[in-house]
Amino acid sequence: MRTLKRFCLSSLFSLTLGLIAQAAPAEPVSPSLYELDLTLTNQAGASRQFDVYRGHVVLVTMFYGRCPMACPLLIDTLRAIESSIPEAERSNLRVLMVSIDPEHDTPDALAALAKQRRLDSKRWTMARISKDDVRLLAAALNVQYRQLPDGQYNHTSVISLLGPQGAIEKQTTVLGKPDQEFVADVSKALGRGR
């Protein structure tokens, strides 16, 4: 009798969940990150909407300028990925690094870092967005972060490949060397973009 009662209760519970799920269909979510209403302020102090990258293949990641270890390695990894792309395709590739620390990563601080790292400003952009937008973009890119008591950040290092319409086509967390599968996907995306 107890078994029958449990079976009936679990069946009723499952049926109720099924009805609730049917009654509230999920709204379709755009696969394009360019639907996010984000204003980027770059290392030159210019403000642009995130969708300025529409039509380009973009490597996008999140970082902070005062980062002592992971972020310099992230920049080196992005450079290695970029160098792995044939030069003829490389000119169509954009790299966007968005700060998780807009309080400290002012345009001047970003410009100094870009200069120190000798980043090509024609293809590489270091940018800041509002704190609220940092949370929004981090969630969209699967980047987790938290500020530590000393002002530094713990964060995951994720590099995302955005296709020309802003959809995430591939992600990698490999640092220190190019993820060859990821590089192949970047080349493929660049080939489609021509």
From TrEMBL:
Lineage: superkingdom: Bacteria
The keyword Signal is assigned to this record: yes
Disulphide bridges, residue numbers: C67-C71
Record keywords: Copper, Disulfide bond, Metal-binding, Signal
Cross-referenced Pfam families: SCO1-SenC
Gene3D superfamilies: Glutaredoxin
SUPFAM superfamilies recorded: Thioredoxin-like
InterPro entries cross-referenced by the UniProt entry: SCO1/SenC, Thioredoxin-like_sf
Signal peptide residue numbers: 1-23
Record-listed Cu cation binding positions: C67, C71, H155
Gene Ontology MF annotations: metal ion binding
Family from the record: Belongs to the SCO1/2 family.
Protein name, UniProt field: Protein SCO1/2
Originating organism: Povalibacter uvarum
Upper lineage: Bacteria, Pseudomonadati, Pseudomonadota, Gammaproteobacteria, Steroidobacterales
